[in-house]
C-alpha cells in the first residue's frame, strides 16, 4: 500500500475510535439523566422546566454556553421562591430539553421565551438572564411588549461592543465529524474544568468534581445535536443589538455588571 493509503486508513481508524468513544459517553449520559421537572411541549421540541414558590412570577434563563442548564440558577431560585413563583427552564438544545437538529438563533430563543410566558406562566413576568441570554430577553420583549413586567440583565452582551457573526465558522463546525470532534474536546471533563477556570474565573481549589461532572453530564444528554446551539453561540448567532433594544424597551430594565 502507498503512503496516502496508509494515511487514509489511519485517519479512518482514528475517526472510528473517536466515534465509538463518543457513543459510549452519550449512552452513559442518557443512563444518568436526572428525573423530575415539568415539560412544556413547544413546536420545536419538549422544554424541561421547574416551578417553585408562590407569588408574582419570575423566569430565570440560563446562559447559552456549553453544558449550561437551569441548575445555573439553583441557589437564586431557592431564594426567590420564598416570595415569588419561580420558573427555571432548560433552553432548547440544553440540559434535559430536546436537542433537535435545527438552526439555533436569538430569534428562536426569543420566540421560545415569549411562547413559554404566554402558554405556561400566563401573566406578565419578570425575567432574569445573563450575557447573550440577557440580550435575547431584550429581543423577546421587543417582540411581545405584553409578556414582561420587567427585566434583570446581568452583563448583557451587545452593549458597548458591536455584535459580529461568523457564518464560515458555524458552517465548518456544523460538519458532523469536525463539529462532533470539536464539541467532544470542548465538553470533555478537562474542557469543562478549563471553562470554570478561564471563562468563569473560579480558583482551582474551588472547582469541584461535582461541578465538572454536572456540566459534563448536561452537555452530553440528548445526543450529538447538543453541539449545535453551542456552535451557534460561538459563531455569534445569539448576539443582538442590545443597546438599540434597550432604548426601545417598554418595561423597567435593571442592568447588573459583574
The largest sheet is: 7 strands, mixed
- Give the CA-based shape: globular
| Count of discrete domains | 1
Question: Radius of gyration from the CA trace?
Answer: 19 Å
By CATH reckoning, the class would read Alpha Beta
Instruction: Name the poorly predicted regions.
Output: 6-17
Classification by helices and strands: alpha/beta
CATH topology-level fold name = Rossmann fold
Q: What is the CATH architecture descriptor?
A: 3-Layer(aba) Sandwich
User: Considering the protein shown, what is the CATH homologous superfamily?
Assistant: Alpha/Beta hydrolase fold, catalytic domain
| Helix and strand element order | HEEEHEHEHEHHHHHHE
Measured between the Cα atoms of the first and last residue, the distance is: 60 Å
What does this structure look like?
With 258 residues, this protein is of the alpha/beta class. Strand 1 and strand 2 form a beta hairpin. The protein has a seven-stranded mixed beta sheet with strand order 1-2-4-3-5-6-7, with helices on both faces. The protein is globular. The protein has one domain (32-256): Rossmann fold. Mean pLDDT is 84; it is low at 6-17. It has helices spanning 3-31, 74-80, 106-121, 132-143, 167-173, 176-186, 189-199, 209-220, 227-234, 242-248, and strands spanning 38-42, 45-52, 56-61, 84-89, 125-130, 148-154, 253-256. The chain has ten helices and seven strands. Helix 3 (106-121) crosses helix 4 (132-143), helix 4 (132-143) crosses helix 10 and helix 7 crosses helix 8. The N and C termini lie far apart (60 Å). The longest helix has 29 residues, at 3-31.
Amino acid at each position: 500500500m502507498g503512503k496516502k493509503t496508509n494515511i487514509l486508513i489511519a485517519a479512518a481508524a482514528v475517526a472510528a475510535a473517536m466515534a465509538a468513544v463518543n457513543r459510549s459517553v452519550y449512552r452513559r449520559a442518557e443512563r444518568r439523566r436526572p428525573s423530575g421537572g415539568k415539560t412544556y411541549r413547544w413546536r420545536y421540541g419538549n422544554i424541561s422546566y421547574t416551578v417553585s414558590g408562590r407569588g408574582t412570577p419570575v423566569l430565570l434563563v440560563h446562559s447559552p454556553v456549553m453544558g449550561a442548564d437551569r441548575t445555573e440558577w439553583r441557589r437564586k431560585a431557592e431564594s426567590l421562591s420564598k416570595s415569588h413563583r419561580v420558573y427555571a427552564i432548560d433552553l432548547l438544545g440544553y440540559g434535559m430539553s430536546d436537542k433537535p437538529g435545527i438552526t439555533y438563533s436569538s430569534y428562536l430563543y426569543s420566540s421560545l421565551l415569549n411562547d413559554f410566558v404566554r402558554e405556561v406562566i400566563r401573566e406578565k413576568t419578570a425575567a432574569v438572564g445573563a450575557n447573550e441570554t440577557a440580550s435575547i430577553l431584550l429581543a423577546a420583549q421587543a417582540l411581545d411588549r405584553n409578556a414582561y413586567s420587567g427585566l434583570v440583565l446581568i452583563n448583557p452582551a451587545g452593549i458597548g461592543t458591536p455584535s459580529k457573526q461568523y457564518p464560515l465558522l458555524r458552517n465548518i463546525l456544523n460538519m458532523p465529524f469536525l463539529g462532533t470532534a470539536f464539541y467532544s474536546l470542548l465538553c470533555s471533563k478537562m474542557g469543562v474544568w478549563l471553562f470554570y477556570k478561564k471563562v468563569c474565573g473560579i480558583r482551582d481549589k474551588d472547582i469541584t468534581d461535582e461541578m465538572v461532572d454536572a456540566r459534563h453530564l448536561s452537555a452530553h444528554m440528548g445526543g450529538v445535536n447538543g453541539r449545535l446551539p453551542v456552535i451557534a453561540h460561538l459563531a455569534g448567532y445569539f448576539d443582538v443589538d442590545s443597546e438599540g433594544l434597550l432604548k426601545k424597551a417598554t418595561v423597567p430594565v435593571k442592568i447588573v455588571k459583574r
